[in-house]
């Protein structure tokens, strides 16, 4: 196996603080993500992991701090801007269009790249049709990659949970992102499904060079596939480093095993 | 037929260069290759393999599903005078060692990463293996092994060579003669090492042509290639007959999409083993049970009519006008849409073989207008020995001997065949060859059977399995285990059965339930279950199966010859019999001896009269890991019936 080349810092999170009224979801969080790496964010439930992802994604606007993406600093990102910068995400509880088929769900991921407008598409204007074919081809490659050919036309709501998660991943991949934010992609899966998902994540990272920020609870997954790990607890960062360092960190151990406060 | 595979390819490419030869579904759409394209691809691969050093007389092992480039590799090998040997793509790595060392191959062409991994795993046991060539590069990006290369590279190098030597392919192909060895197929023997069945261009193409004439196949047939290429039937339907007739072979996207692809293609000429037809019918029945009341009523009443009228219509018998009209209405409303859902709208001829097919199952398909017929043959006979003619189709026969075939029965009931399609020999196994091929050209099929009044062949069982009951009320009666097992498998609830009784006083049976059918049955009775083992142990399910066994007994009691084969005791196994565990062959035939040894404790318990027995078995998972499954099985007694007709 050739050694992976991890690049420079692509995403920099600086002193982010997020409050919901009196609840301090995130307190002064700073970490960076390098290009082509797999960065895991771990921590007990309620630590602020999803909130962190939502800040990067532009869903939440932090009260303090900034995010730097490829040298451009933003105090607030809005989701559309973030998507256009090449950041895609999956959702912890899925956010698929249950009534639409798998292929249609994946095609929605191409939305930002489709240039022809609604009217032209409705009239099936030549160039609009050609564009649809091109996007369809890209989406078919993703279907092939995720091995879901048999479910192309199935309404997503009828698929088993594990396959829905794959479709969610597929939709994010359809954006051809530079950075992929995965919010607990292995949640609710058995060992075999987790192994499959890990393989897809690793393949995406290896084949397309996509940088991956991964929230995950399964420690074996985190230790096995991530390059570096950030540990959050009660909205504060308590660990940051390679998996072995983090595993030996006494603060991290006590956060998971629990000590009396 | 005095021609060869490569010559046929060149003829089609010359006469109909732009006609489609093969299609493959990739990225959601069917991509066609025409005959010109197929010939070019084959010549590039041949040139590439030649440059890598493949020589006349060598073998080339091919492992994968049906893919145009794997077929082209087989044709390329034949053009170079090498012998392609397809292996089962779902074989575990260890099973591939014998064929590779037996044929002393230096080259294998495989489909994808899964097969490459298997080859790398056993490489140390196959020192002669030099080149591993793969078709689909997915996942192989970071592999760095000596001799591992993509077919794409071979084709590119070959294309350059062909440009410099334009007559190369034609010259090589012209050297092949009809009596040269064209291919080899390993039969998954039920005992010992597999035997390599050697066939020539002549034997395969003769049978292919005979079958094509029998069913009037033309170049516009559409065939779906979904069965393993290692099985000779697949080779005959999608390779030999493909080249003999020049029709179109369609390769599905993956095993998971076969039913979808079947509907999209709408083949005109189709083959499937009986269990596939059973599975389709179970599917239809289950879905009909979920349908609304009106649809259910429509379905049941029209199916009644179809059973009455359909087979007769198909057989060309005369039907009253009113019946005909009603059938036409049924065709519009039920049979047509049903055929469409199954993917059989355009099927002109559908064959099944390999095991006996239940009469109800057979009637179902024929009654809705699908020309399902049976055939008889084997790897050693290049398949086509007997076929059922269109208007003489019955569930209990396998057809009449076709063009070129002579059949004779030995004293012990064994069927002997003489045909131009017979194997040349078993590879490197003179002893085995002499055991089945007599000097005067008769092949011993090791099947027992007889020819009935209408000239149709009926199969009883494997000769060596036909036994006798010893002792007790039925002493001396004929016991044909397969016959009994087949009757049990005609029920949708029973997936597999293994019968014991030779040399014993009574007949005892192991049964595997069909998870889908029984699961559905259980759900309709609000019977919860936690998986296969749990369902197989439920008392309600055991009673259901008991009912099926007793019905088989009632049926057997009416058979003059086999009334003594009635079943006395049975049990339902806690796990499905599986080829990966060595219990079934790769073509899903039971290995009665192996199963008897592995489950000896159960056999003893059945014959010892025990009411229940604990069993723990080792199972092998798909990735090679092993685990244990255990349960306490109940052993049940079954009612037998007095012989209605006295045994001969």
TrEMBL record, chain A:
<dbReference type="Pfam" id="PF12399">
    <property type="entry name" value="BCA_ABC_TP_C"/>
</dbReference>
<dbReference type="InterPro" id="IPR003439">
    <property type="entry name" value="ABC_transporter-like_ATP-bd"/>
</dbReference>
<keyword id="KW-0813">Transport</keyword>
<protein>
    <submittedName>
        <fullName>ABC-type branched-chain amino acid transport systems, ATPase component</fullName>
    </submittedName>
</protein>
<keyword id="KW-0547">Nucleotide-binding</keyword>
<dbReference type="InterPro" id="IPR027417">
    <property type="entry name" value="P-loop_NTPase"/>
</dbReference>
<dbReference type="InterPro" id="IPR032823">
    <property type="entry name" value="BCA_ABC_TP_C"/>
</dbReference>
<dbReference type="InterPro" id="IPR051120">
    <property type="entry name" value="ABC_AA/LPS_Transport"/>
</dbReference>
<keyword id="KW-1003">Cell membrane</keyword>
<feature type="domain" description="ABC transporter">
    <location>
        <begin position="11"/>
        <end position="259"/>
    </location>
</feature>
<dbReference type="InterPro" id="IPR003593">
    <property type="entry name" value="AAA+_ATPase"/>
</dbReference>
<dbReference type="GO" id="GO:0016887">
    <property type="term" value="F:ATP hydrolysis activity"/>
</dbReference>
<keyword id="KW-0067">ATP-binding</keyword>
<keyword id="KW-0472">Membrane</keyword>
<dbReference type="GO" id="GO:0005524">
    <property type="term" value="F:ATP binding"/>
</dbReference>
<dbReference type="GO" id="GO:0005886">
    <property type="term" value="C:plasma membrane"/>
</dbReference>
<dbReference type="Pfam" id="PF00005">
    <property type="entry name" value="ABC_tran"/>
</dbReference>
